[in-house]
Design brief:
- This protein is mainly alpha-helical.
- It has one domain: Four Helix Bundle (Hemerythrin (Met), subunit A) (Up-down Bundle).
- Strand 1 and strand 2 form a beta hairpin.
- The longest helix has 36 residues.
- The termini are far apart.
- One fe (ii) ion binds next to helix 3, helix 4 and helix 5.
């Protein structure tokens, strides 16, 4: 018997005793399911949406750097970024958190204080985004006072969403994930997938493309430029 055979035999033996109880990827209740290319777990889905948000925070950081350095700013950098924040993050990603994640944790009595803060931050974020969009006009970007006001808004948004998304990724989502049965997980995965497909301006892939275009226009797309010499 080869070593591989032995290993396989041991695995089958352990499985037979119910030791290998973990559900393998692409498998639900021991029944193989067709692996859909778009299929990602609900928490991975939310985390990669945070990736889009984090790339917008980098754009916001570059815009504030330009304000401080008294360099040119195009209104479209601000409006395109803030529109993605409004439509994809605030009206979609955060709505999913508010509809599916937070209530489930509150019902289980888990992380309730954290959920209260996160909810308040969603509200605050929406107010800051409205202010950013109000200031992002070609005329508004000419005046020194309104440029400074815009930079303050962008800075406060970045300052809040860096810790907000990091806490959700490392504390909120793992705790939420642990509460879900495999059946609930699959159901939520399908719900998120359907909701994303119904988005009028495109889902995750489209948003990544849009953010990349903004990064190219503002000059922060080339990842290698961030490597220390
Ligand atoms: Fe959130
Ligand atoms: Fe989030």
């Amino acid at each position: 018997m080869t070593m591989i055979d032995t290993t396989r035999r041991q695995f089958v033996f352990a499985g037979g005793l119910g030791v290998a109880a973990a559900v393998l990827p692409g498998e639900v209740y021991g029944k193989a399911v067709k692996k859909d290319e778009d299929e990602v777990s609900p928490t991975e889905d939310l985390m990669r949406e945070h990736g889009v948000l984090r790339r917008i925070l980098l754009v916001y950081g570059e815009i504030t750097r330009r304000v401080d350095a008294k360099q040119e700013i195009k209104a479209e950098w601000v409006t395109s970024s803030a529109t993605i924040v409004r439509e994809f993050i605030e009206d979609y990603h955060e709505k999913d958190e508010e509809e599916f994640v937070f209530p489930r944790l509150q019902k289980a009595g888990k992380l309730t204080d954290l959920v209260t803060v996160l909810l308040a931050q969603h509200q605050a974020g929406r107010r800051v985004t409205a202010e950013i969009l109000r200031l992002a006009t070609p005329a508004g970007l000419k005046g020194e006072a309104s440029r400074k006001q815009l930079a303050d808004g962008l800075r406060s948004f970045v300052r809040m969403y860096e810790p907000h998304s990091a806490r959700e990724d490392t504390v909120l989502f793992p705790t939420f994930r642990a509460l879900l049965s495999e059946r609930e997980l699959k159901k939520l995965m399908d719900t998120f997938e359907d909701k994303e497909k119904a988005l009028p301006h495109g889902g995750f892939e489209k948003m990544v493309e849009e953010v990349a275009k903004i990064e190219q226009s503002i000059g922060i797309y080339d990842l290698a430029t961030f490597t220390p010499a």
